[in-house]
Amino acid sequence: MNPNRAREILKKVRQVEIRTRRLVTDALAGQYHSIFKGHGINFEEVREYYPGDEVRSIDWNVTARQGRPFIKKFTEERELTILLMVDVSASGNFGSTTQSKRELSAELASVLAFSAIRNNDKVGLILFTDQVEQYIPPRKGRGHVLRVVREILFFQPRSRGTNIACALDFANKVLTRRAVAFLVSDFQADGYATALRIANRRHDLIGVLVVDPREREMPAIGILTVEDSETGQQMEIDTGRGSVREHFRELAEKKLEGVRKTLRSSGVDVLELGTGRPYMPALQQFFDTRKRRRA
Description:
Largest sheet: 6 strands, mixed
CATH topology of the largest domain: Rossmann fold
CATH architecture of the largest domain: 3-Layer(aba) Sandwich
Structural class: alpha/beta
Distance between the termini: 50 Å
């Protein structure tokens, strides 16, 4: 790699680390732990039954051998696996503000990753397009998280399209234990509803919908040639006509509402973020909502 390019990457990753570490410390302290901890239980020991113990916890095999009742004792699972599933298809490179959708995805993923290692949890990464481009198995530690951030920011995918179902199926195969999985994408794909439902039964799946304002509202700037970043298809649009802009807005909102409906009907919580605006208020509100629901 070119030395200048290497320095640029290290500088960018370091900037993201500094910014997100501060956010994790100042804004999310305690919230992550209270929301995601305790989703599973670990077997600890078998002990003799005492009056008042839960009858359903009786270990009948040990009870039969010992001739008196014993129960299985469990403890709350303290270590979690956080899986970041990040869409790196070509549409993520779009950004009409100071950042692209991919840059926003990387910063959000950094906040979640640093929150995880602060709580001694493991972090894994799946980068996907219309295929799984890269998989980094869950591990702990700052060095591991910095690698995850670097890959999200600078990985060069082989494909341009999006296949969400493929990424979800892959996650189900490689993760043998329940995980908290963040699916970060603009969801410009079809045919993933069934995969969502299956993955959400096995894991705590959260859909992070990343959008850009220009994908929802078209400015009045005359004749505009637009290109689908994933298919390369082009078309000309007369943005000077109010009816054209309104039709575009209606189609965009219908498409977004379809994504929201698909996620929610699959039982998946939805966090919606937009480029060019602070994401921490939305993330904190999302955490608060989950916390109230769990309570």
